[in-house]
Specification:
The chain is of the alpha+beta class. The chain has 5 helices and 8 strands. A 6-stranded antiparallel β-sheet has the order 3-4-8-7-6-5. Strands 1-2 form a two-stranded antiparallel sheet. The N terminus is likely disordered.
């Protein structure tokens, strides 16, 4: 028998549905080409959080949400990233968190004798920070402060805000 390309047509409610296998393959290939041309981000929208450097040298995270939504999203992001939230004060927009920087702990080179002293425990260097969410209508600003409430300008604060940005995109 000679192979025939069969197009099954159905008329349902005045709409015609055609099932031509070759046409389906062509549409799928065009769809993949379109996604490749857009860099695989066909469904992705604009970023809703971005990291900016202030004139003072500290970093801030700009979130394109009002305070209520940004407060909730930052709290969820802190949980997902693994921060320990010690306390929170919603009226001031402040989360009190503890953060152990894994890179600071990895920098400590242990010698042979240090490795043999199994009875000594190396507690990770845990630092406490304040993460503040402030309303700047129509968006919100997230900043990292030291335990005294001064803006933190260290590389760790930039890393904290980068981790949050990745969760809030």
């Amino acid at each position: 028998m000679v192979g025939l390309a069969v197009a099954a047509l159905a008329d349902v409610g005045g709409v015609r549905f055609g099932l031509d296998p070759a046409a389906v393959d062509r549409r799928r290939d065009v769809g993949h080409a379109e996604a490749d041309r857009q860099g695989g981000q066909a469904a992705a929208g604009p970023e809703r959080a971005r990291l900016e450097k202030e004139a003072t040298g500290s970093y801030q995270l700009v979130v394109d949400d009002g305070f209520d939504r940004a407060w909730r999203r930052v709290g969820l992001a802190l949980d997902r990233v693994g921060f320990t939230v010690v306390d929170r004060d919603r009226s001031k927009g402040t989360y009190f968190v503890r953060y152990a920087d894994p890179e600071n702990d990895a920098k400590k080179d242990k010698g042979f004798l240090d490795k043999l002293m199994f009875w000594k425990t190396d507690a990770p260097n845990v630092e406490q920070y304040r993460i503040t969410v402030a309303e700047a209508t129509p968006r919100s600003l997230v900043t990292v402060q030291d335990p005294n409430g001064a803006p933190d300008k260290s590389a760790t604060s930039e890393k904290i805000l980068s981790l949050l940005r990745d969760q809030l995109k």
